[in-house]
Amino acid sequence: MAYFGNIAHLEEQQAIVEHDGTSVSYSELSSASDFLASMIGRRTLAFILCTNTIASVVGYVGFLRNDIVPVLVDSELDPELLQKLIRTYEPAYIWSPEARLQDLSGTVVHSYSGYSLLRTSYPENISLHPDLGLLLTTSGSTGSPKLVRQSYRNIEANTNSIIEYLGILSTDRPITTLPMSYTYGLSILNSHLVAGATILMTGYTLMQKEFWSFLKEQKATTFGGVPYTYQMLDRLRFFNMDIPSLRYLTQAGGKLSYDLSLKVAKKVRDKGIDFIVMYGQTEATARMSYLPASRAIDKCGSMGIPIPGGEFWLQDEEGNRIDDSDVVGELVYRGDNVTLGYAERKADLALGDERQGVLVTGDMAKRDADGFYYIVGRKKRFVKIFGSRVNLDETERLLLDKGYTCACAGVDDRMSVYTEHEGKEDEIHKLVSHMLNLNMSAFIVRYIPAIPKNESGKTLYTALENL
Q1: Dist CA 237 CA 259 (whole Å)
Q2: Burial of 237: CB neighbours in 10 Å, binned 0-12, 13-18, 19+
């Protein structure tokens, strides 16, 4: 068994509780997972259309425990984009909510708690590298065919490091606020399952009273959030609530504003709750740094220090190390959690380790005299919208495929789409919202007579940003 081999010994300890009261023990999770995997019976590729449910986790745990390589996909992914992913990678099996079977083709060979295992028409004898354990999307909302190849060693190293620096206990009860197909949400799942904790799984959002009822009834000890989560918590006056069971809160998925970060740190400290800011990427399995709760106020705005077993350095444009404090350079990370590389087609799943433990992050940062790092910008064209990483170039391509010439620019939690199609702004707005599965408030669409370009025909994004 490649991973999660230890969970069976936890026996009757509760592994997962859903908001409707349904629960499974670790022994039940182990048995259901292994039985599902036995329906496949060999190492091959399988898609999981993920939801925050026991059944979704059964598929994930079963595949990892039995050397079956899962591709984690958001169950809400647009059908057209899902089909594109399926055609690209040709999975032999798909573990799907029954509600999505209408979008898929194949033969149902097993069902469990609202999920079905679908045998597709694709061959099972796919070439998979022996170290390959898991595949995650780089930009889940656009259905990009580019996947991150994670090894069993990557998952184990990052999970153990997170358990160590957060001090996760078997008595912890995290409540889900993020999808398990998202690297941050998955890291919470992995670390708490390995620690033998009880995961409180819900599809309710912070804006629904059922979420808060579930949190209080089940005495949640922790939850994680992206910047948008904390903006919502602030609006909901969360910091005035009395929730004595909470032990600590985590934040990742983009940089939280300085003012809100300081407010959160001070408010929860007064309630005896730890606040830990973290930084990571799917390409590093999940986490690369954390800001210890004891420094949340005096080092506010910092992404912190490397996780146990990890190392950072900064480099200039020529690749030379920057040793001085407060000098901006590109952030580089080394650790056992650095993933094998990317896959963009089926044949890439046979590739080995292309990174050799070193990740050039694409983020610009500086280091203070105490060794704490601060992100100052992003080198590549990605933004994080409500915690989901959106590839601006990929979004432009998707729009072009639909017949719209557009240019995308923006910063975290604010994206702008510029178009030359006058009168089509609302149409494009709805299309982008649908394709990316994002709320329409996350971006705006503007008409401009001509998208600015240089003499070689490349879009001048700096000119757009000035607009």
Answers
A1: 16
A2: exposed
pLDDT at position 131 is 97
- CB-count burial class (<10 Å; 0-12, 13-18, 19+) for 103: middle
CA dist., res. 327 & res. 144, Å (int): 35
Residue with tokens 């940089």: 255
From residue 64, give the alpha-carbon distance in Å to each of 95, 132, 246, 300, 363. 13, 10, 30, 38, 31
Torsion angle defined by CA atoms of residues 245, 214, 208 and 113, in that order, rounded to the nearest 10 degrees: 140
How far is residue 219's CA from residue 41's CA, in Å, rounded to a whole number?
A: 39
Residue 309 half-sphere exposure toward CB, CA atoms < 13 A: 19
CB 403, CB 153: distance < 8 Å: no
Q: Smallest Cα–Cα separation from 49: which of 63, 60, 64, 38?
A: 60
Beta bridge partners of 46: 70, 93
Structure tokens at 88: 């690209």
Q: What is the pLDDT of residues 207-224, one digit of tens each?
A: 999 999 999 999 999 999
Distance (Å, whole) CA 271 – CA 274: 9
Q: Comparing C-alpha atoms, which of 211, 206, 270, 282 is closest to residue 242?
A: 270
Rounded Cα gap, residues 413 and 39, in angstroms: 42
Q: What is the mean pLDDT of residues 422-445?
A: 91
3-class DSSP state of 136? strand
Fill in the DSSP letter of residue 128: -
pLDDT of residue 10: 81
Alpha-carbon span 30 to 23, nearest angstrom: 13
**DSSP assignment of 323-384:** -STT--EEEEEESTTS--EEESSGGGGG---SSTTEEEEEEEEEE-TTS-EEEEEESSSEEE
Do 418 and 406 form a contact (C-beta atoms < 8 A)?
yes
Q: How far apart are CA 234 and CA 12, in angstroms?
A: 38
Residues in contact with 305: Cβ distance below 8 Å, sequence separation at least 6, in sequence order: 289, 290, 291, 292, 371, 372, 373
Q: What's the rounded Cα separation, in Å, for the pair 151 and 131?
A: 5
Tokens of 429: 């707005």
pLDDT tens, residue by residue, 162-201 = 999 999 999 999 999 999 999 999 999 999 999 999 999 9
Token match 């425990």: residue?
A: 65
